[in-house]
Amino acid sequence: MGIIERKEREKEQRRNDIVDAAERVFLRKGFENTTVDDVAAEAELSKGTVYLYFKSKDELHYAINLRAMQKLNKIIRGVYDEKKDVVVNLEAMGNVFIKFAEEFRIYFEAILHFNSKSLANIEPCMTHDLLSDESPISFLVELIDKGKSKGEIRSDMNSILIVELLWSQIMGVLQFVFYKQELFKMFNITSEQVLTGLFEILKNGVRKSLEK
Amino acid sequence: MGIIERKEREKEQRRNDIVDAAERVFLRKGFENTTVDDVAAEAELSKGTVYLYFKSKDELHYAINLRAMQKLNKIIRGVYDEKKDVVVNLEAMGNVFIKFAEEFRIYFEAILHFNSKSLANIEPCMTHDLLSDESPISFLVELIDKGKSKGEIRSDMNSILIVELLWSQIMGVLQFVFYKQELFKMFNITSEQVLTGLFEILKNGVRKSLEK
DNA sequence: CCAAATTATGACTGTTAGTCATTTTTTATT
DNA sequence: AATAAAAAATGACTAACAGTCATAATTTGG
Which residues of B touch A127 (CB under 8 A)? Predict the structure, then answer.
């Protein structure tokens, strides 16, 4: 009786089709200016049907965010090179994150969007997703632990704390660069300078005594 | 001919009254859940009148953001102690920023709100405001310059860049703590630990060799 | 071929930002 | 004090959009 399974698959497929349509509209009209009607039209479905597959607009947004995190996760894990130092690996991961943000604008926008949303307002599953293997967090914690045992990373700070600090600092800077571009242009500061500077601070801090 | 001036003052006063009313409603209902009708009712004015003084809801929000930045600015400048090291001053400023965020929740929410908005969508004056003496930015740039000449701060990085990096990193972490509290609770990480950790990273980075 | 279950529809509701013709109040002039 | 002109205030109205639900179309299993 594979009918139930097939139906299950078809339902999954339709959900995916809607998310695909949403991505296309977002790409055309931007994340914030897209209405549910737009998405329904693009998916060649009625609005009611969209609401059959997603409880709310936010949940549709969240589906994109999930895809984004999964892609980012793969990319970050993909550059890991166990022969290299942990700190070198971290920097490489930071760099592919930047590349990811440039290449998959919509995905990055989705991540930014949920970065400034309270967990309380979103599906409770978000907390779970953030910590699952679909997210880079768990992998990064392991990496930091490895760095500690190799004597590369300070061991007087909780690994989870380190990862969340690094993550939120990078997100903070990317958000600033993304939303306040004009400010940097005004001072002839390029995105590259900002990001090089960020990694420099993250690695070495601002103290003169630590200047290379 | 003081009539025009008096009218000017009255207009200013009314604008202020509306912002005062808005603050009260925000405190009751939260920043995001407040409608313009709510604000008008609280100010005992019609909605149309509110729109006479503010072009849009966003501009009303922005007025709160301005007040918030002015208050923060005063507080940050207030703790400056020229006898102390620049890095010590920076840390003290970071700490009063945290206290500010706790004490003036609405103001902090307003700052967070505009932190994740594109400059392009807001009044063009925002860029100006961000750099004026009403904002802590210009003061911090001077402080970093002083740190450089005293040999405390690395001089191989543009001072504006340093300030914007520090600012956006701190905002990133505060945003994360604010919106993702549940995550920290789950790992028994307190806000204090996060912020101590942040300052530690900002000062020293994550390298073992720099561990105190 | 039919009835039950599933899936899809789009007209409808509710909410809220923003507008504008009209009214009320204030100012300047006689 | 009476009146015309200017300024300020009003609230009913529009437009846009998220979300709902009674009804219709389609699929399934007998």
Answer: 182-183, 186
Q: For residue range B69-102, what is the model confidence (pLDDT) as tens digits?
A: 999 999 999 999 999 999 899 999 999 999 999 9
DSSP 3-state of B153: strand
What is the span of the domain harbouring residue B81? Answer: 55-210
Q: Number of Cβ pairs closer than 8 Å across A and B?
A: 190
Q: Domain holding A171: CATH number? A: 1.10.357.10
pLDDT at A165 over 90: yes
Asked if residue B143 and residue B198 are part of one domain, the reply reads: yes
Q: Are residues A117 and A31 in the same domain?
A: no
Q: Please answer whether residues A130 and A68 qualify as being in contact, where contact means their C-beta atoms are separated by less than 8 angstroms.
A: no
Low-confidence winner among A95-109, A120-134, B124-138 (lowest mean pLDDT): A120-134
Does position B210 have pLDDT exceeding 60, yes or no? no
| β-sheet bridge partners, residue A153 | B207
Which of B113, B109, B117 shows the shortest CA–CA distance to B26? Answer: B109
The tally of domains found in chain A comes to: 2
CATH code where residue A11 lies: 1.10.10.60
Q: Is B124 on the interface with A (CB under 8 A)?
A: no
Half-sphere exposure for B68 (CA within 13 Å, toward CB): 24
Does the CA dihedral B83-B86-B88-B93 come out positive or negative? positive
**Cα distance between residue A130 and residue A70, in whole Å:** 10
| Residues B26 and B44 occupy one common structural domain | yes
pTM of the model as a whole: 0.92
B-contacting residues of A 37-96, CB under 8 Å? 87
